[in-house]
Amino acid sequence: MNPRFAPGRGGPGGQDRAKYLADALGITVEKLQAAMEAAAKAEQAQAIAEGRLPQAQADQMAAERALQKYIADKGLFKAAVESAVKDGVITSAQATQILSRPQPGMFGGGPGRGPGGPGGPGGRGPGGPGPGREGGRPWDSQP
User: String of b and e for 70-98 (b: at least 16 CB within 10 Å)?
Assistant: First the structure.
């Protein structure tokens, strides 16, 4: 599979890719997200059990995931972008472009490190690349 278009990875498509995949499977996007999150949790649990992922790192990944969801649920990312426009940090056109992409906590990516969710632990889940190889899982990294 082309890694640019792997499930859960940001980039071209984002939310559209989730919709197309859900449609192809005959399920809702919400059910697709839930299934991918469950698979990511199972994969992470196996990595912990096999000693490929330290529990402390898994706990940190869960905290980052919870923070990203909080930011998305509260609309804080959008507020920060709007504030940046007001303060002259970015232009209105740049803000429109930024806000048109998937945001933290959304299927398909967004700014920040996204250790889990649809992209899998350390993958390109909600929030972009996690630790480890580019777009890979941290427990598959080579030192």
Answer: ebbeeeebeeebeeebeeeebeeeebeeb
